[in-house]
Specification:
The structure holds three protein chains of three kinds.
Chain A: E1 7-10, H1 14-24, E2 28-31, H2 37-42, E3 50-53, E4 63-66, E5 69-73, H3 78-83, H4 85-90, H5 92-99, H6 104-109, H7 112-118, H8 124-132, E6 135-140, E7 143-148, H9 149-152, E8 153-155, E9 158-159, E10 166-173, E11 180-184, E12 194-199, E13 204-208, E14 215-216, H10 218-225, H11 230-235, H12 251-268
Parallel strand pairs in A: 1-3, 2-3
Antiparallel strand pairs in A: 4-5, 5-10, 6-7, 6-10, 8-9, 11-12, 12-13, 13-14
Helix pairs in contact in A: 5-8
Chain B: E1 4-9, E2 11-16, E3 19-28, E4 31-37, H1 43-50, E5 69-72, E6 75-78, E7 91-93, H2 106-113, H3 123-136, H4 142-148, H5 160-170
Parallel strand pairs in B: 3-7
Antiparallel strand pairs in B: 1-2, 2-3, 3-4, 5-6, 5-7
Chain C: H1 22-27, E1 42-48, E2 54-60, H2 62-65, E3 70-75, E4 109-110, E5 116-122, H3 125-133, E6 136-141, H4 148-153, E7 166-172, H5 176-185, E8 188-199, E9 208-213, E10 220-224, H6 229-240, E11 247-250, H7 266-278, E12 282-285, H8 288-294, E13 298-309, E14 315-327, H9 337-342, E15 353-362, H10 376-394, H11 398-405, E16 414-415, E17 421-422, H12 427-438, H13 440-453, E18 457-467, H14 475-480, E19 489-495, E20 501-505, H15 514-526, E21 533-536, H16 554-581, E22 588-591, E23 594-597, E24 600-606, H17 607-616, E25 628-634, E26 643-653, E27 659-669, H18 676-695, E28 727-730, H19 748-765, H20 779-788
Parallel strand pairs in C: 1-12, 10-11, 14-15, 20-21, 27-28
Antiparallel strand pairs in C: 1-5, 2-4, 2-6, 3-5, 7-15, 8-13, 9-10, 9-12, 13-14, 16-17, 18-26, 19-20, 19-25, 22-23, 23-24, 26-27
Helix pairs in contact in C: 10-11, 10-19, 15-16, 16-17, 18-19
The chains are: A alpha+beta, B alpha+beta, C alpha+beta.
């Protein structure tokens, strides 16, 4: 299938991107790796008027560690996260989750920022970043601001980013405590039916595909913090969630999976 | 296609009766090709319809099957999930660019030797994905090959001989 | 016959020879339908009903016509006078079968989501896609019939003029009283109901059509990604009313078919009509998502199977009752698909009494038709699942229940209770070998240990033994089943002046490797290099006679025709050689490419010399025509009956319901093998396709008749990551049906594997109280079954 006609400009820097977004308003859509956007355009479920292609904004690519914080450029590819020896050292959960996305070809093109801004509750990286905590750095016409990760995902495929803002970096605390990512699906290439990410031995727990946004499993985190055993902590994994129903799972099966996978993740993470 | 310059951000864009077109200059199989395309043109269609490189096949609409896999700057990419404008300035290798004067690429040779293809429709994408996989991951075992090819569907072979071929070529 | 009685000359036949098809496919050189360069071609895009059942109250094409590049839009009404006949159904299985008119573009009413209601013609594929959005159709949605039970009730009659949704009922009950008596006397009476979900065939190459007209002399070339260029030529000529001699059909490289390209489709006839109308080439390429509504689907039937047995589990009768879903219309051979299984619901078991009945109904869903195995996977599934249920009832092992019932080897040729003659078989060794490959005893012990330890990962072992009928088909048998064509195949073998060989076949390969195998058959006999043999096919101008490729027929029917044409050309060459050697033709033998006189090896002439002599024709025996060429049309006297035993080992995670395929072993028997590498390849792919039905694939429709798994993100064709290495072996029981002793292997894997996996799944779950599992055994379905049975760690 074939996308509808679209305009195109290339923005090789954050400034150019912000300028293009300001000039073209709601019509414009940022294009990073395109691994989510282009399939939607092919099915004509997305039909932006103008693509602002940031794919070559190389200043937004890269991983650096400064003290307790890892800064990752928004255009860093999943593949770069997966293969980064540095990231494996300071934040193994994120490196591992990146390696579980789609397939290698998707990982070569897809970007961390693109995945976060797309805000798909079924995606792996948003949940991982939620479990890790930290801030997202956005730049707009009035300069830059930091958004708490926990405030970022505001609705189905919606984020706290303003229409004329560009996500430029992700800052997460170094996280070398017990971690796990349990991704459950029927085929390796598919979205998670349910996924559970655990950071810091249960201090951070998040859920994939259990609602309209990527979710923090706050009840589990609280239970772990309160010294509950893994079974008890996992038993509240689905509390307060409103998971979707689709071909592979209805809501109650998702709730069941969330509990099972959370327990496994906590055990795996040494909680 | 000539037209009136409409706006300029980064690159020259023209307007034609068909909408926007843009000049794309890309190195394909070692040769620089410069073509005007609509921005919505999928890389797969650009390769097939504009450059006549029909070895790259299209098998789905959802980035699921991998029949269209090519190398962009040396790494596998699904050319149905990229726009031609995104490869402006890049280096693209298609299945047509894999075999040299001396014959088949070792990966192609291994697919032949191991009977890793039947109808052959998924094969160009599968071979390109395999070439990239072997380059990206060292010490691949059978499970690694299976997982590494998870984004390339084949309906004929049951994958057993594909795995065998990729392992053979990776040695 | 034993293996040593080989009919072959001892040359290349039997070697794992690499394929000559590969280089073009590996390099992108092969041309599939969408690869064809057709300057000036117009692109067609089809406006398809989004509703499963809707009246069409009006169509506004004005916005579409305003799109740049769109040059025409046609509705069903616009094209109503174009068709000479409705799209064909070639298999009216009963005299009173109900068959609704089915035209390429619907008029008045759309009967499934995907039914074409208008067509856009444009100068590019992009413009055609844009044009689609501009066609505004005023639909009045009607109640949709989406289940066979609802269809059977006639709550909503889809084709009002037919008065019912029932297309036909077809019984095969040779001895009704005998069946009833057997069930009355039975110690064990097992009744099982199974549902074969709808499957999307999904060859990796979607379909496509291109038509090149020659408006002034009336020629027309139809290119199609089809398995059946020859059948298509006849049917297309009749449907559009064009003279057959002016029509040429070419199947370019075809990227898999699996039965779904064994059809005459709306788009083929439509593109011909539009090419005629516009006088320029016209082309259409299917998109994957579109295929859910434009290409046939498979399986889709509900089965009830009953087994009667004595106290030892020896079968005394089998009764099968089917309710089959034809979809909205009858496609080319759809009504006959259940019949291809009708004779096999007793499997490879010696059963005296047999009853089969099929009722087929219309629904508001995509039409169904042949899909890899067509009827035989369904039959095998029913009997093999039910045999496990019988084993439980009798209290014996699933291996033992089968061994007790196998048709004894000495009974071959076996007169089956359904009226067939099974050509040859030796079933127990195949089962023994499969058990050995999987490590049956060790695995059983491991299963028992886990059960005793209370493990929550459950092991299951499932056997499926099978016999199938393939090599379609004896024309007289087809006549008795009301099929509208024959089952012969044609071949020409031509020895060129330079002693290179051309073989022309009416079979139409699309990935199987026929060119390699057929050239091996000919090379073996002629003593030439297989690379010197070129196999020509899939173009009705080059290969005018043919019945194409489906039903695992291309070797046992098509290959046999080639074998016989080779014998015939050798006979002619021998006549010329004898003349050259001044000997009697009957005293000559052809070995290693040289004719020699038996007993006087010094008197010899190479085949090359004979070929050139036949070409120059300077000195031929009286009455012998120049050139070496022979044509044969072979009509087989019987089907062939491959068989085998497959065993699957699965592991089920009780908490999630996930089924993990751990191991798979199979021993198959397709008679003599031409190329064992290709036999194995066919099995690999076939087995995975059958496993996919058990575990992953399903065309999911909602209550409104919308397909919710139309693309490959939602329709779960497995990848390498879900599959495992299979352990294969074979036995060889040659067929007496043809001179090469060959059977068929293209469908066998798919026929066998589904039941093996599902038997393994149920075996794993049985200790939890689960006795039945619907397909596909998705994690949620398995978990639900465990919960329903009252079990399940959470």
């Amino acid at each position: 299938m074939i996308p509808a006609a679209v305009g195109y400009v290339r923005a090789d820097s954050t400034e150019e991107a912000v300028a293009a977004l300001r000039e073209h308003g709601d019509e414009a859509k940022l294009l990073a790796g395109g691994q989510s956007l282009i399939p939607l355009m092919r099915l004509r479920l997305a039909r932006p008027g103008l693509l602002v292609d940031m794919g070559r904004a190389d200043d937004l690519r890269g991983i650096s560690v400064d003290g307790d914080t890892v800064s990752i450029g928004a255009l860093t590819s999943h593949s770069d996260l997966e293969h980064s020896a540095e990231l494996a050292e300071v934040c193994p959960l994120l490196a591992h989750v990146a390696s579980q996305i789609g397939d290698p070809a998707v990982r070569h093109r897809g970007t961390l920022g693109g995945s976060l801004v797309h805000a798909d509750p079924a995606s792996d990286l948003p949940a991982a970043v939620l479990a890790l905590g930290g801030t997202l750095v956005a730049t707009g016409p009035d300069g830059s601001r930091e958004i708490e990760v926990s405030d970022f995902f505001t609705g189905f495929l919606e984020s706290a980013l303003a229409a004329d803002e560009v996500l430029i970096a992700v800052r997460i605390p170094i996280s070398t405590g017990g971690w796990s990512y349990q991704k459950f699906n029927r085929r390796a290439q598919d979205w998670a039916i349910v996924g559970v990410a655990v950071a810091e031995s249960g201090a951070g727990v998040s859920l994939v595909n259990m609602g309209s946004t990527p979710l923090r499993a706050s009840a589990v985190e609280a239970a772990v913090a309160g010294g509950a055993g893994v079974s008890d902590a996992a038993s509240v994994a689905a509390d307060g969630t409103e998971p979707p129903s689709d071909n592979n799972a209805d809501a109650s099966y998702r709730e069941h999976l969330a509990r099972v996978l959370t327990e496994r993740a906590l055990v795996d993470a040494g909680a | 296609m000539p037209g009136t310059p409409l706006l300029e951000v980064g690159r020259l864009v023209h307007m034609t009766p068909w909408g926007f077109v843009m000049e794309v200059s890309v190195t394909v199989n070692g040769e620089v090709r410069t073509v005007d395309v609509e921005p919505r043109t999928l890389l797969a269609h650009f390769l097939r319809d504009e450059l006549g490189l029909t070895g790259t096949n299209i098998g789905c609409d959802t980035s699921s099957c991998g029949a269209c896999t090519v190398l962009v700057d040396g790494r596998s990419a699904k050319s149905c999930t990229m726009l031609a404008v995104q490869v402006d300035g890049a280096d693209v290798t298609t299945i047509e660019g894999l075999a040299g004067k001396d014959g088949l690429h070792p990966m192609q040779e291994a697919f032949h030797e191991c009977h890793a293809l039947q109808c052959g429709y998924c094969t160009p994408g599968m071979v390109m994905a395999a070439v990239s996989l072997v380059d990206e991951y060292s010490d691949l075992d059978a499970d690694g090959v299976r997982e590494g090819l998870e984004g390339n569907l084949c309906r004929c072979t049951g994958y057993q001989n594909i795995v065998k071929a990729v392992l053979a070529a990776s040695e | 016959m034993t293996v040593t009685d080989t009919p072959f000359a001892g040359g290349v036949v039997g070697e794992a020879r690499l394929r000559k098809e590969d280089p073009a496919l590996l390099t992108g050189e092969a041309k599939f339908i969408d690869d064809l360069e057709l300057p000036g071609a117009l692109w067609v895009a089809c406006v398809r009903s989004p509703h499963a059942h809707a009246r069409i109250n009006g169509i506004d094409t004005s916005d579409a016509l305003a799109v740049d590049g769109v040059i025409a839009v046609y509705t069903g009404t616009d094209l109503a006078d174009t068709w000479a006949a409705p799209l064909p159904c070639a298999w009216p299985v009963t005299d009173d079968m109900k068959n609704p008119d089915h035209f390429p573009v619907a008029q008045g009413k759309a009967n499934y989501a995907g039914d074409i209601v208008a067509v856009v013609v444009a100068t590019s594929r992009y413009a055609a896609a844009d044009g689609l959005e501009g066609v505004v159709v005023d639909y009045e949605p009607l109640d949709a019939v989406v289940s066979v039970e609802d269809a059977e009730s006639d709550r909503v009659v889809i084709h009002e003029d037919l008065g019912t949704n029932v297309s036909y009922e077809w019984p095969l009950i040779p001895d009704p009283e005998g069946v009833d008596a057997a069930f009355e006397a039975a110690t064990h009476h097992v009744t099982e109901t199974y549902v074969h979900q709808r499957l999307i065939p999904a060859p990796m190459e979607p379909r496509g059509v291109a038509v090149v007209p020659a408006p002034h002399n009336g020629d027309m070339t139809l290119y199609s990604s089809t398995q059946i260029p020859h059948v298509l030529k006849v049917m297309a000529a009749l449907t559009l009313g064009v003279p057959e001699q002016k029509l040429r059909v070419i199947a370019p490289s075809v990227g898999g078919g699996f039965g779904c390209k064994l059809n005459v489709y709306a788009e083929e006839i439509l593109c011909m009509a539009l090419a005629q109308r516009h006088g320029v080439p016209v082309r259409w390429t299917e998109s994957r998502t579109e295929a859910a509504g434009s290409t046939i689907q498979g399986r889709a039937q509900r089965q009830t199977i009953e087994l009667a047995s004595d106290a030892d589990g020896k079968l005394t009768a089998v009764r099968a009752t089917l309710l089959a879903d034809m979809g909205a219309y009858l496609q080319l051979v759809a009504p006959g698909v259940p019949l291809l299984g009708a004779f096999l619901y007793h499997g490879l078991y010696d059963v005296p009494f047999y009853s089969f009945t099929c009722k087929s109904v219309f629904t508001n869903l995509t039409p169904t038709d042949a899909y890899r195995g067509a009827g035989r996977p369904e039959a095998t599934y029913a009997i093999e699942r039910a045999m496990d249920a019988l084993a439980v009832a009798v209290g014996v092992g699933t291996d033992e229940i089968r061994s007790r019932n196998f048709i004894p080897t000495e009974k071959f040729p076996y007169d089956s209770p359904a009226g067939l003659v099974f050509d040859s078989g030796d079933y127990q060794p195949a089962l023994d070998r499969a058990k050995e490959l999987i490590g049956w005893d060790t695995r059983m012990a491991e299963q028992a240990e886990r059960r005793a330890a209370g493990s929550t990962t459950h092991l299951g072992l499932g056997i499926s033994t099978y016999v199938e009928m393939c090599g379609l088909a004896p024309s007289r048998v087809l006549a008795s089943l009301n099929y509208a064509a024959g089952g012969w195949e044609s071949a020409t073998v031509r020895i060129l002046p330079t002693c290179k060989i051309q073989v022309v076949t009416g079979a139409s390969p699309h990935g199987q490797g026929h060119e390699t195998c057929w050239s091996m058959i000919v090379a073996d006999r002629l003593g030439v290099d297989p690379d010197d043999v070129e196999v020509l096919h899939s173009d009705t101008a080059i290969s005018p006679l043919g019945m194409d490729t489906y039903g695992s027929r291309s070797l046992s029917v098509g290959g046999t025709a080639i074998w016989m044409a080779t014998e015939k050309v050798v006979e002619k060459a021998a006549t010329i050689a004898a003349h050259m050697l001044e000997a009697n033709p009957e005293d000559l033998e052809l070995t290693g490419g040289v004719f020699s006189v038996k007993g006087s090896p010094e008197a010899e002439v190479p085949l090359a010399g004979v070929a050139f002599a036949a070409f120059t024709a300077h000195d031929l025996p009286d009455g012998v025509e120049p050139n070496l060429e022979a044509q044969v049309t072979w009509d087989p006297p019987n089907f062939t009956f491959p068989f085998g035993a497959h065993i699957a080992l699965v592991e089920i995670d009780e908490a999630t319901g996930a089924v993990d395929l751990v191991d798979y072993a199979a021993c198959d028997d397709c008679g003599n093998q031409i190329n064992p590498m290709i036999v194995e390849g066919q099995l690999h792919g076939g087995i995975v396709q059958g496993i996919a039905q058990a575990l992953w694939e399903e065309a999911i429709y909602d209550e409104d008749g919308q397909c919710r798994s139309a693309n490959l993100a939602d329709y779960l064709v497995p990848s390498a990551a879900e599959c495992i290495d299979m352990k294969l072996d074979h036995t060889v029981t040659p067929s007496p049906t043809n001179p090469m002793g060959v059977k068929g292997i293209g469908e066998a894997g798919t026929i066998a594997s589904t039941a093996a996996v599902m038997n393994a799944v149920v075996d794993a779950l049985r200790p939890l109280g689960v006795t039945e599992m619907a397909m596909p055994a998705s994690p949620m379905a398995v978990r639900r079954a465990i919960e329903a049975a009252g079990g399940g760690a959470s």
